[in-house]
Model the fold of this input.
Amino acid sequence: MTIDTHSAPTAEQLDAIRAIVGPKGIVEGDDATPFISERRNRWQGTTPLVVAPASPQEVSEIVKICAKHKIAITPQGGNTGLVGGQIPLGNEILLSLKRLRNIRAVEPLNNSMTLDAGLTLAEAQEIAREAGRFFPLSIGSEGTCQIGGVISTNAGGVNVLRYGNMRDLVLGIEAVLPNGEIWNSLKRLRKNNTGYDLKQLLIGGEGTLGIVTGAVLKLFPLPAQKVTICAGLDNTDNVVKLLSLAQAATGGNVSSFELMYRLCIDLTLKHIPNTRDPLNARHPVYVLAEFTSSAPTDAGLRESVEALLADALEKIIIRDATIAENEAQAQNLWHIRHSVSEATSGEGLGARHDVSVSTNDIPAFIEKANAAVKKIVPTARFVTFGHIGDGNIHYNILAEEGADKHALDDQRETIEQAVYDVIGDFDGSISAEHGIGRHRRDDLAARKSPVEMEMMRAIKKALDPQGIMNPGKML
Done:
């Protein structure tokens, strides 16, 4: 993989940046270490300066200095990314958005709120809740990841089935462009047909076209009813059948529909404290599903879900199921699902994939991908889980039980390419929600059509002709 490099900033240039933010905006020494390494320790970064501006105006002033002297910049939110997009590996300064924390407006009647980019996703959820509204984006890192980061990576999570990705939840954006100008497009409109929808270039752009400093986010009514279930099934074909049945039986009130293979449960019980088996018997496959409705509590959502499960049992689509009787039980079920990645890390890095195919192709994809990996590693273990409602599968490979944690390091690239080949057979995506970053940059170029790549490069060249924004990421 080629690493893009820029000239190292001079001491005078760094001092000029320090002067913009003052002592509170400079992160140095041991305090800087968490900013230049990512959670799985796959990339260890280097940077001449970690700077944390406190306003969009300070971001603008910093970027203007960098543009003038061709200094590269790596923007960073909560540093929870899994593809290295937030880690500087050259002479880039690291620009953290952690001090941009203003709540600019909350408008329940318009079902919107305008927030700074440095607020965490969990804080955004709570801000909405305090206003009697619901912000639906939910991912495992929501206590740490920041609004700017989840916009820049187009985060997905467990509620995409009903509410969409982050791309679908953003009404307007404020960003600092590569020349240092502040682009204020904090529109609170749901209809705005005045040319190109430019904010979509920043959503999922991984900081390669500008730095998101604020956003207007969509809100929804708080759910009046919520029912959480866990079901055990024999195979993935039945998982897809259950999803179809659930959508029809509840009038489209399925908010989350998560797949977990048995090994996910076993690893979580092994590595994560305070977890317990969700059902009495073991099953090959599990579904964790949540149903929500904003209708009054007498509308009978639970009755609909109970009827769904009875129908699924009669048709032998499921073998067993449990309904959470209270919020604590629901959280215990979700604790298992949200802990799968951490539990997997306890067995080693292995080979991990964040891929997507059409929902009806999921069973065939998993079968074909398993066969392809087995040809490379006959003793492989498959940690397969994900958001089956939107076709996003986290398809992770581990060496046999008891093997060294680095046993698959030399075969990782071969495994990944074999899985991506299968993804190509199903016209799927090699990145569903984690992004491209450094990790998948070369794979993107190799597997996306030349026409698409040329369009992306043309946009990058037009907006960032000096290539200073997050160099080496995505393109």
Summary: The mean pLDDT is 94. The two ends are 11 Å apart (CA to CA).
